[in-house]
Amino acid sequence: MAAGRSESLLTVINQFVFQGIYKAVLDAYHQNGNNVAEAIRAGVSYGEVVTAQAHKENPKASRWGRSMNRYWKRFYVVPAPKNKTPSERQIEKMLARIGRSPHKSNSTYQNYINEWEIFLKGIEKL
User: Fold this and answer.
1) What's the sign of the alpha-carbon dihedral 71, 77, 82, 88?
2) What is the mean pLDDT of each run of 10 residues along the chain (126 residues)?
């Protein structure tokens, strides 16, 4: 198979998968009274199914398979804190003294919710 042909096949798969996830999120958002958290959970549920199906249909496509499966399994998990250097700990103490909270790690799920809320607030300002 020519390189351009396999690339276009991946483009079609990606387009199908991403459009489906996007539609699942928006449908759930509207059906659940504009509930962001519920919309994201619906997108994740659909994403797990559709990426597994895409992998089954094209196991050689690098985007599907183990890496995608790991992504969905970790979607709701807050990453373990990394070992901080003494300077990073000092910066956190200084931030705490002036009333600013240090950056905390969130799950991918929480990051999506936060970004969606920032987006909605930005629209409200317009």
Assistant:
1) positive
2) 49 74 94 93 93 82 70 88 81 75 77 88 87
> Could you tell me the two tokens for 71?
């992504």
Q: For the range 34-42, what are the long-range contacts, defined as Cβ-Cβ under 8 Å and sequence gap of 24 or more?
A: 36/113, 36/116, 36/117, 36/120, 37/113, 40/109, 40/112, 40/113, 40/116, 41/109
Supply the pTM of this predicted model.
0.67
Distance of CA 18 to the CA centre of its chain: 12
Contact yes or no for 105/88 (Cβ under 8 A): no
Residue 51 CA, chain-centre distance (Å), reads: 14
| Neighbour-count burial for 81-92, b at 16+ CB within 10 Å, e otherwise | eeeeeeeeeeee
Q: For the chain, state the CA radius of gyration.
A: 19
Cβ-contact 105, 81 below 8 angstroms:
yes
Listed residue (86, 28, 2, 17) closest to 53, CA to CA? 17
